[in-house]
């Protein structure tokens, strides 16, 4: 089998401070920008590559193309006015922002959310996770030149968005999880239509197994490529499927159950290889877990009950002084909201902890040297990062 | 890598024969039933409270005047205009809407080359304004409180045995919860005759900043303790919260502020009047209008003397309103603050008897007439002349003075206003003390849905044992051979006003009833006793249907004489307070004008 063995004698030497001595004037090295507009990059960020031949010797991640200052905007809005903003922090999986923010406010305000709302929130989050994985499965195929998966997954995501639309009233920014509960009940016949979507998804995913996971090209380009040493998980704050692919069976849904996850039956998917293949595989299996969870939720959730707790008048809602951190397991890892209230009607500080921040900015930079240029896209996609949540 | 892994991917070529999954014409695809599309507004239901504008985090909503929509009680006349360059379709405006008028259609495509078109008024603009599908909130609003916080009050069995105050007032905790429901739309401010800054003082309750609250109250009303108990609270009838739930208990919150600030602190917070300006004003009548004018004039440095014919100051607040609704010490505190501003009140001093009008005119720079309505009117039906028929105001005054009043076992009250309720409930208490039973029948021209009395008065009267017969017109006070009253004969009322809107009751004579009782009390309205004016002045003044004619600024036709209160306008304490402020301003303007002339 072909093996890539670069000529290390060509490599730049490291100076006393450990920095590489790269002199572009020599003509040995080339600067190459992958992004911000590049099909091999996820969202609006870029990687500045220094290549020697087709091997990358250095990669610097750049963000800042998408900075909207949300965390600061939130400090200038009342607690209810923050609600329409939070979902925009992360475009492909916005619901986690809604949940974490609502739960943080409820925690500080001492509000007990009705049972029905807890089930509904779990449903929404799993639907969002499903959609997020569709983006991943489409993206990882695309990064390696397998365009068809992107088309199929976009279709699956689209029919799940139809369910989002009828349930929440919107396709992308659902704005359904309000502090205090959720905005409504299940529409009539929702379960049946959801089942159709899940059936279709399972059929398409079987084809994904054939076209991607049983594909010699995909295997060759992903197995053993982009290995993350599990020893790096802790210092780099690696969580979610990226860590589970390295044998760490950590999943907040299991480890510190929130909402109604303690009443649901599911297993944590893990893998041992910690390469692109393993990470893709874990996510492929996790889609199935989400599909099963959605079915369980729809079966087990109460049919009626209040969707909202009694909350004070939101127009002058003052949240008691305090701070809290609410976290959950999103499709990329640990997602959390740190909320500080000084007792006024405005949040003193909101910090969004998104897994992409560590995965895409620090870890990626660490992993790039030594890879082939053509693998950078797959490496980045395999970390499943969403730049919007890096730049709040 | 086996051959299988090379060939397997090709099996998905079968999908070449699948139908395409893309939607052929996505532009025409309708949004879901709950889709948060373009805004709709039911223009008749909308009250222009502006809550949508307040909650919008994008500042996409402006409240704008609309042609054909006039401001009226409980409606600002404004309607939301939405800028789709800013809107994010979060629908918080729909959720927070106080009436449920704002909804969304499921329409989501709109193409126009003119960017200004996207600043539009839902309910007027847009082809989707009558669409049925689209987002509307589930059930009642949940973003602000719907139910009023209950105030503790005495049970009917307990309260009928005494003249103690019925309601207990809110605790701090209850008041904060009730104040929390207010959305600060300010519709109430426009409705309140004195334009009290209601949302601001409710905010002070929320913050438990009672000093600020009290200062706000005194900016517009020196009778906040009285109004906090007995105001007709028209503000609450225009409250945005009443469209889906209970209106905010504005009156009780006002009372709560007063209850929380000790008397001495009140005077401290209001501060002392400005330096004397050398002007002197005489005010006739120590009711709410007269004393409010006195308060304002005194604070502006004018020397004020109030002449009161009765033994105590307060006017109808003391002699008309029973103690169980307004304890006398509460009234005394309000009057005490006014006296602390340097106002001199001469009680038991009747103008025309103890002091002459001409003297007042000569010794003062201006005279304000605020004499109220203290003469009860009569129905003048046969039998009303003679013993056993009383006027409600006379009886109420005698009860306040502690005089002994005749208390029969069974009596009939004529009238459906608050005064009728006051006398019925006062007599009920006296009957209970004397006989252990209540025997009162109340008849009124109006049907129960159109009673002039406050609804809670009607409810509480009934709870206390008063039997109410609505739509009954008095025809005769029945008397026996000795001339003693035996009851009241009534006919059923078909209509009260004629086609031109004039008072002309029509009766169904076949529906006759005799209400037994040995006393009949008439509570159908009052008139002013203007005998104090003297013949010459009465002759000189201009009159309007029995009342002294005044202009918008409460000037009479005599340049030195001003008039305010029930005697010229009415009908309640808060209107009298508003009039008091207005007449004081007019008097001060008059002084300024005279100074310029000199």
What's this, in brief?
The complex is a heterodimer of chains A (392) and B (598). With 392 residues, chain A is α+β, with helices and mostly antiparallel strands.
* CATH homologous superfamily (4th level) name of chain A: Cytochrome-c3 Hydrogenase, chain B
Query: Order of strands across the biggest sheet of chain B?
Result: 8-7-6-9-22
Any idea what the shape of chain B is?
Answer: globular
Which CATH first-tier class of chain A would you pick? Mainly Alpha
Q: Could you name the ranges of chain B where pLDDT drops below 50 across 5 or more consecutive residues?
A: none
Cα-atom Rg of chain B, whole angstroms? 31 Å
Radius of gyration of chain A: 22 Å
Written overview of the protein:
The complex is a heterodimer of chains A (392) and B (598). By secondary structure, chain A is an alpha+beta fold. Chain A has a single domain (70-356, 370-385), classed as Cytochrome-c3 Hydrogenase, chain B (Orthogonal Bundle), CATH 1.10.645. Chain A is 44% helix and 12% strand. In chain A, the strands form 3 sheets. Chain A has a 3-stranded antiparallel sheet with strand order 1-2-3. In chain A, strands 6-7-8 form a 3-stranded antiparallel sheet. In chain A, strands 4-5 form a two-stranded antiparallel ribbon. In chain A, α4 (115-143) packs antiparallel against α10 and α6 packs antiparallel against α10. Chain A is globular. Chain B starts with a helix and ends with a helix. Chain B has 598 residues and is an alpha/beta fold. Chain B contains 21 helices and 22 strands. In chain B, a hairpin with a 5-residue loop joins β15 and β16 (485-497). Classes of the chains: A alpha+beta (392), B alpha/beta (598). The A-B interface holds A 1, 77-78, 80-85, 148, 155, 162, 165-170, 173, 175, 178, 180, 183-185, 187, 207, 210-212, 214-216, 219-220, 307-308, 310-316 and B 1-2, 4-6, 8-9, 11-12, 15, 21, 31-36, 51, 54-55, 57-58, 88-92, 95-96, 104, 135, 137-138, 142-145, 180-184, 203, 206. Chain A: Pfam families: Complex1_49kDa.
